[in-house]
Amino acid sequence: MNTTRPTHPTRLTHPTHLSTPDRLRATAARIDRRTPAHRDRAVDGLRALALLAVPTGHWLLGGFTLDPDGGLHNASPLSAFGALAPASWVLQMLGIFFLVGGYASALSYRRRPGSSRSWLKGRIVRLGRPVLGVTAVWAVTAPLLYAAGVPEATLRTGATLVIQPLWFVGVYVVVTALTPYCVRAAQRLGGWAAAPLLASVAVVDLLRYGPLAASMPSWLAVLNILPGWLFAYQLGVSWGEGRIARRGAWLLAAGGALLFAVLLAVFHYPASMVGVPGAERTNSHPPSLLVLALAAAQSGATILLRDRLARLLARPALWAPVVVVNLSAMTILCWHQTAMLAAAVPGSFAGALAGLTTPPETVGWLVARAAWMPVFALLLVVIARYTRRFEAPPIRGRGSRRGSPVVRRAVAGVLAAGFAVFALGLA
Questions:
Q1: What is the DSSP letter of 70?
Q2: What is the pLDDT of residues 276-333, one digit of tens each?
Q3: CA dihedral defined by 72, 74, 77, 80, rounded to 10 degrees?
Q4: CB within 8 A of 195, min separation 6: which ones?
Q5: Measured distance CA(301)–CA(326) in Å, rounded
Q6: Sign of CA dihedral 13, 16, 18, 24
Q7: Is 73 helix (H, G, I), strand (E, B) or coil?
Q8: Structural domain boundaries in the chain
Q9: DSSP conformation class of 384
Q10: Are 191 and 244 in contact, with CB atoms under 8 Å apart?
């Protein structure tokens, strides 16, 4: 995820006689006018699209069941509906996340030669504040919910759901720290700089699932984490360095699609790109070769469609939502599971509610869950209204004491660490 922030739309005032559609059009036009000409709208649009796929996937493919004591437990419709697996191919856009992140980091790093430490520090701080905020808030809220009568099983489920998406931030910080090395590799090898990462994951997968799998240690899969997610980031850096032309993009798209098909049809990789409860193998934790094949195909298609997307986003009505989403990127990532829980936890006290607290085992559940999606989105908007401040840098007022921000960060850090230990201990 790129941490370069798009132009912030200023607060607007319009004549009161304007209708709501007219006000929205006027706001979109104002945002469009205030966008710098050098802003890469296509990259911002791709980032927003990949970002919105995260809550969409979690809300659509994540369900709950109720135990006899009213506690919520995680469940997935993929356990009952294997035919839904292709939906995960569309919703799994982390490859695009890392691609556009690498692209933007390469451009940003080029503008800050010789100051990689301060460059990296700025990105870590912007990524870390929202993570610190959500974990600290949950550290305070969880005991209050328990005291209010929320079952322990529900709190365990909630803690797991909140902490799971945050792994992305840690991985992204690590690959961002490797940007100087990725730039040098791209300058020497171009798009082929990502090939050794692909080969590394292929070797680990062969050891994990091949003839020698029974004698391999269980920790071997961990070796795929860094090269698995660095692959698309390195492609993005090479793209940002101007080392992937249209021919290379076509090779990525076609080669990735072919490898994806072969892995499914010949080597019988699991079809779902996300974990399925009870399944012996998973593609996502850590990433398998299938994830890299999909990322390669997505990356090639992204590079090929970049100019067309830029032309579409020249329209103010399409560009304004992209700006809003990018301004709230970390808020959406950190709080979207909380939005779903904000509906499910009260719903659990009402009993079995179709699409919310009933087992995701029927077509009726899928229809009902689709009806719940706008509710989750609305709850996320409400939550973001108060939590968006964690993305903004602190503003020190004239009367504030110098040490108070440090004290607040220290307290938040202790709370966040306590909640993280609690949540990770549930895994």
A1: S
A2: 877 788 898 889 999 999 999 999 999 999 999 999 999 999 999 999 999 999 999 9
A3: -100
A4: 189
A5: 22
A6: positive
A7: strand
A8: 74-312
A9: H
A10: yes
Distances (CA, A) of 196 to 151, 189, 278: 48, 11, 32
The answer to whether the Cα torsion of 415, 417, 422, 424 is positive or negative is positive
> DSSP of 129-178, one letter per residue?
HHHHHHHHHHHHHHHHHHHTT--HHHHHHHHHHHHGGGHHHHHHHHHHHT
Alpha helices by DSSP H, 288-362: 289-312, 316-327, 329-349
Q: Radius of gyration (Cα) for the chain, nearest Å?
A: 22
Which residue's structure tokens are 């090779």?
251
Is residue 265 exposed (0-12), middle (13-18) or buried (19+ Cβ within 10 Å)?
exposed
Q: How far is CA 417 from CA 107, 354, 394, 406, in A?
A: 34, 36, 21, 16
- Per the listing, tokens 């390669």 go with 296
Nearest Cα residue to 103 out of 233, 271, 205 = 233
Amino acid at 376: F
Residue 364 identity = G
- Residue 295: helix, strand or coil by DSSP? helix
Dist. CA 246–CA 367, nearest whole Å: 41
**How far is Cα 59 from Cα 51, in angstroms, rounded to an integer?**
13
Q: Which two tokens stand for residue 143?
A: 């005991």
Q: Report the C-alpha gap between 346 and 363 in whole angstroms.
A: 24
Burial class from Cβ neighbours inside 10 Å (0-12, 13-18, 19+) for residue 96 reads buried
Residue entry with tokens 């021919």? 247
**Whose structure tokens read 């504030």?**
400
371-408 confidence digits (pLDDT tens) = 999 999 999 999 999 999 888 766 555 444 444 565 55
294: nearest Cα among 85, 70, 134: 85
Cβ contact 173:127 at 8 Å: yes
